[in-house]
Amino acid sequence: MTARKKGPPTGGSGANAGAPDTLEGLFPRFPGTKDIRYHPVFQGGLSRWVWRYYTHRLTRAGRWFLGLTCLLGLVGSTSLEIQTYIPFLYAFAFWTVAGAAAAFSRPRVAFVARHADRVCAGETLPVEIEIEQRGRLGGADLNVLPSGLPIPVDAIPEGGVPVPPLRRGEKARVRLGLLCRRRGVYVLRGYRVETDFPLGLLNAYRVFGEERSLLVYPPFHRLARMEMPTGRRFHAGGVALASLLGDSFEFLGNREYREGDNVRDIDWRATARLDTPILREYREEFFLRVAVVLDTHVPRGGRRDEREARRAALERAISVCAGITDYIARQEYIVDLFAAGPNLYHLTAGRSLAYLDQILDILACVEENPDEPFAVIEPQIDERLAQINSVVCVFLDWDETRRAFVENLRRGGAGVKVVLVRDAPPTLDPSGDERAGAIPVIGRADFERGVEEL
């Protein structure tokens, strides 16, 4: 695998995983399980402390009681004739006791979380959690929830999962879920164990920080059939010999054994019949090598709705590309995947050289490219064009640049199939280009129904 990049992202990539462009992430919809560093409003140290105190320390009942306390204090400060300062003092004393109790109620537990490192976008990742009580006092009213989640990952349930009461040395296992809404590479920063014992106003909590990478690969529909122009070329050695499934050979005939031949190929029946060592001779069969080229170009400028539509089309194109590579890999072809966002990715897979997970890893990381990617991809594919039988191009538009790219591949002797993923009319009419052949156009409605044939 060849991937030219500076390093893995720390928060998320491949799906605009940073701060949102809209007010969707504002306070009412930004729960305490999220990473405050992605909040579009709370950027200062003081505002972040207030947000953490409100979401982490105060319980739901505590927030209501805090509002009532502030109201009593406000009314009581205006006049001494209305003795509302007396209930305010009672409430203040109650807060003092709750704060002291929270200081001594911090959970003393051992914590272990287990989950897979890959999940499909739109699915819920199950997280198995084991908690052991270490404190002298029993653990009461414990609750477990994630801490520092990236924006596209939601906790299921949002408020966490309760832990049964534990005595010292006892263990409990609970399960929570992480709903991954968009593809990308994210970092899970840990979990939080909290308790509102004994008064239910303030949470005492302990954060278990453990950074783990989570790869969310694109969803795709498995293709049942795909037509593509192919030509067979003989590829001796090299890639073919790397197959873990075993090479495919065609029987040619028998000949006498020569020094250095593989003794496993001796035909023992013929040897016994002729009273001299006889060897079976084979010839390696042909196999297909297919390149898949992903168009990642989302141009700068234009209206915002046009850019968002283009980004949505890119996400669908990535899912279609995943379905195509899955189909080709199931046919035991050699697959060369080329994708150029800000970084160039090239992966050779198929015939057990790499599993489908590795292809999906690349597609999870691919980002949009404001520049045309073919200036980077074309030299890389030209170097390998003599060994490539077919090229499948997943484009976001059909214009002169892409048509010239396809013509160059055809002149190199490869069969080319073009798939266009787009809602708006393309720059050029693909149906009027006889040299390009039939170009299927996949719109949003087609994608949502599920693409089974290409």
Automatic annotation (TrEMBL):
Residues 255-419 form the DUF58 domain. Residues 1-22 are annotated as: Disordered. InterPro entries: DUF58. PANTHER family: SLR1927 PROTEIN, SLR1927 PROTEIN-RELATED. It comes from the Bacteria. Pfam families: DUF58 (PF01882). This is DUF58 domain-containing protein. It comes from uncultured Armatimonadetes bacterium. Keywords: Membrane, Transmembrane, Transmembrane helix. The lineage of its organism: Bacteria, Bacillati, Armatimonadota, environmental samples. The chain crosses the membrane at residues 61-79.
